[in-house]
Amino acid sequence: MGRTALTAINGTTPIGLLIATAARARLRRGPGGVLIAGECRRPALRRTFTVGSVILTRRPAEWMLHPDQAELLAHETRHVAQYAGLGPLFFPAYWLACGWSYLLTKSYGSRNWFERRAGLAAGRYRENPLRPWATRLRRTRADQGAP
Hints:
Layout: H1 3-9, H2 12-22, E1 26-29, E2 35-38, E3 49-51, E4 54-56, H3 61-65, H4 70-86, H5 90-105, H6 113-118, H7 132-143
Parallel strand pairs: 2-4
Antiparallel strand pairs: 1-2, 3-4
Protein name: DUF4157 domain-containing protein
């Protein structure tokens, strides 16, 4: 069974479609069965993001499908696979990963497991350095032989 079928069954794609409808987005089919919800008006989106098999963006869907955006589209499509695996548990897991990342780096994406697996650079995230306390802790653990 494909990832888009799994996200439809586990309920995350219907949630993405509800958000797209509330945002008055224009839907267009993308590669691999994903849906591009372009020209989202509400809620106020600052970035492109994915819910289930729906990629939401303020820009037109054609922008996301343009070859110049191939890396970003691949990044968002990797999130579809993550939703397929975790279903609705993706939401709390992702926000926990955001909190952990912010705690370590003052960035919600830099040390976020999901963003790192989807490709930080492809998702246009920066690799922020660890905060000083986290660097010291990591050094101490390394000195003690911890993995």
